[in-house]
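Q: I'm writing up a methods section and want to include an example of the input and output format. Could you take the sequence below and give the corresponding predicted structure tokens, formatted cleanly so I can copy it straight into the document?
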Amino acid sequence: MTRNILKEIRDPRKWLSVLLVLAAATLVAYLLMLAGLENECIIMVYLVCVLVTTVRTESFIFGIIDSLLSLVVFSYVFTEPKMTFQVYSKRDIVFLVSFLITSIVSGRVVYKLRLQTEKAEKEQQRSTVLRSVAHDLRSPLTALSGEGELLSENYDTLSDDQRRSLIEDMTQEITWLTNLVENILGMTRISENGLTINKQDEVVDD
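A: Here is the clean output for your methods example:
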């Protein structure tokens, strides 16, 4: 788990996404301040910023990082005394702490909802594949059953050519089923990152 977190933190694209969303939120918040809105309204911009970052980066860790950065920026730009990291008002301190808790909890909820949505989509895709496979299996299995029953019940009355023809048809159906199963197993290995590529040097003739 720690390795995955470190891998996420080292992703420059996610950091860029965090900074871009934070910059956009700060611009909007500053315009709202110029329009005369109170900090209670302005802080909602940063809450949306955290949620957007969580969705864009697909990471709860970056949601927390954005919450902390939003807290720092908001404290520096919008609380008295402005353009400092000092907060004199107890009301502002409670306000900032409440924002931090709310943003982290909201980001966590959005992240879980995203995971649940992706899981539901994967389950739906899996169900679709299973229905498709079942449909593809039904035809050759039905043919094999019919041909096997015909061969079993009428073996003595069938000519050698007829028996040979039925056996050839059954062989073709079995081959088709074997290829289908191999293809399904191949897709399973790819989806599970279990497919390995063996490279060999080959001599190229001029």
